[in-house]
């Protein structure tokens, strides 16, 4: 362990890149988590509507997100290859992609009502789902732009600016969220509409901050962030070759989770609320680990750009050890302290209804504790394979597992009238386990060592 601490691509290097990203993702986690706490305190219907609507919005956003964030792999590989003058060109291809993507997401406003009619949720919940979904999709463009611009820093392994910008966004978003939901100070009481508006503001602020930080003459001299603004067909084609499978992969993953939420919602209102709370609590473990997913993608990308696959392998193992340690700690919290976590979501004025949610929530947090360690393995190896350019394989496995472990089994459970929440949750645990086993085997096999994301030099 001492040797790995100070070695290149060891623990110290992993934490230097990864910890600001973990903190950054924690700020996003806190925003999401407090948003649902505020909505839970506001009404049980608002809480029940928030997760299906936000997951459905992110389902459509996920494809474009998966493509846009691949800008970071190009930036990292150009950095590893010491071709800094190509960083600006890679960044701008991502920006050009964000413009039509944002327009497409905004147009989803018109499909909201028929989409949520398919869910079969109670009318009062469905009405809130439609409103929340529409607001979130309008903010999709600024969100994608912020993710793309952050790659200028994260792809080069300079992750502190990303952390600081996201902390600033959280620092403004959380009180704004509370005020707009509950009608505090000069703000009107808007309920779930206020939650959506605060989230869109949280999407927009990072994009503005990164734009102000990046586009200046100093950065242009080294990275051509202003002079490489033109659309480059060949580079964009390579970006699509590797980024599109990443987008499809992420879409299929979120589709499976969305399907899970909708099926659970059909079982009953208590089951939906308990599952929403359990998944919201799981974000305390999952989202920060996504920071390590980005970190390992950066480290592998830089090593592959430098033609050093052994360094990429070593970096992946270092990040995996850190992720497993964190997830073990979170699993113990979920297992030992479920009631205090659930009580954070207690709904104002609906004591009896929430008392029915707590016992089931305790059981579901046991499921969450069980799959967190397995999830860490899947998250890290996906990041490593993505950083090396093995995105087609990730897409194929994610799609197969999503349909084979979630969509098809959950459809059968619903068709045969199952009213137990345990069946869907067992399917979710199986899904994560399959991903962890397959991606670990693929990484150890070493097919990714021969991939070339950037052009030869």
UniProtKB/TrEMBL annotation:
One of its GO terms (molecular function) is xenobiotic transmembrane transporter activity. It comes from the Bacteria. GO terms for cellular component: plasma membrane. Keywords: Antiport, Cell membrane, Ion transport, Membrane, Transmembrane, Transmembrane helix, Transport. It is found in: Cell membrane. The chain crosses the membrane at residues 21-39, 51-75, 87-111, 131-152, 164-186, 192-215, 242-265, 277-300, 312-337, 357-381, 393-416, 422-443. It is a multi-pass membrane protein. Pfam families: MatE (PF01554). GO terms for biological process: monoatomic ion transport. Its main location: membrane. PANTHER family: FMN_FAD EXPORTER YEEO-RELATED, MULTIDRUG RESISTANCE PROTEIN NORM-RELATED. This is Multidrug-efflux transporter.
